[in-house]
Amino acid sequence: MVFYSNGAIIIIRPLEAAAFRLVRLRNTTEPSPVPTIAKDGVYMKKSNLSIYIILFLLMVTQLSGCALFGAQSPESLSPSGTVPPTQTQGELSAKDKTIIVYARAMDETNATKLLIDEFNRRSSTIFVKYQELPADSDSIYNQLKDKLSAHSNEYDIIDFDMSLCAEFASLGYISDISPYIKVDAVKTEDFFNGAYESVKFDGGVWGLPRNISTGILFYRKDIVGKAPKTWDNLINFCTMLSYDPSQYGFSMGGKQSEILSIEGYEFINAYGGKFFSSGDVCIINSKESAEGLTKLYELYHSSYAAPKLSEKSNIDSFVDYTNGSTVFMRNQTSVFTTATDQTSEVLLKMTDIAPVPKGIAGGGSFVSGNMAAISNYSDHKNEAWEFLKFLTSYDGQKIITLNSGRFPVLRELVMDTEIRAKYPRFKTEGFCDAMEQAVPRPATSRYRDFTIIFQEELAAFLENDQDVSVTLNNVQSRFNHPLSGPLQKE
Q1: Structure confidence by residue, pLDDT tens digits, 442-481
Q2: In what helix (H) or strand (E) does residue 396 lie, and over which residues does it extend?
């Protein structure tokens, strides 16, 4: 914690930090779902002795000028986003610390390790261990459900796709962190709005966004002077262009997957369609939704669309675009993490980025990505909260972004000079505009059922010429009246 006196920062050393936590943290041997909150914003204790200890330590600290525990200024971070060893407080050792477990998918970059190491250096009381989960989302979902349905306290913090927030919250698997946010006065407005809204459900806040992605439109600025604002504008551009035999106007990842769902959501949203009413009731079958999907079909089957879209992943369409095969490409911000620095540099010289086009009702893309949440069965919720705060803080997110290239969840970091120097795409106005306009995916406690049904019916509509009204009716009926419980992928 930081205090100011005559313009100087007063900092608490490890021993003093431990004393400070007599009032800051509740006794971990007496777990409770939420902290007890005093009106002055600290955790309540019965004795006033702690207050005198704090006052004494503050006077000692002011005289001794010791090292800071907690936030560092951005300038003090090394190129990897971590604090040089001479500035650390904790040790990379679990000795005499409360151990908590952070469970997340395998990270192919070094970002997660650097993040955890940095937290363990700074903390004199908490030690985070990294429990690696499988790489694919289905395996993660199954493993987390197995553990949490058994009320296992093995994991303290769990990391999973944001679309599962409503399901895990409704099942009681994760803790509402609203009281922690209030006590620590977390500036939730610093998060991109769509990302923060994605971790809210039924009046609670069930975690914090860890990384995010959204839909964007790539376009060749050497061919097209400006980005189309609407889908009709894009179609007009495409019909007016002349193409080489190997060149096309538009491409997207049309393979049956979560991305196909998100693309369908974009068109429904752009033409005013809705997904759910209260109580998990699907209301997708409407003329507005039909108009949106009809526009998608028109684009998908046009003469200027790249061939075999149903077989293309986002990476496939990205490769086509970087090879000069298409003028417009709908993709995700996350596709940049799959590209080499050289490819990205070349791409940015001939291209620009904009939000996905709008329809008659406006629209925008949908947020995808992961969130981190505190397990409701953790024995160390307060300690888990401290790590969760660091994970989503300026320092924590900077470590992740610098070492992985993933889009940060905080607006301020997009302007960070070090990040922009390493990843020039963050300088692109359209890149940031797309994230500002992004909205949460449809919120339902049965999201996995819904997206599987939607993908299947949307693929039948786009590939097998199933009527649009039949498509929407099937989605709504299959979701609202499941024959035998949750659907499973084949």
Answers
A1: 999 999 999 999 999 999 999 999 999 999 999 999 999 9
A2: helix 394-404
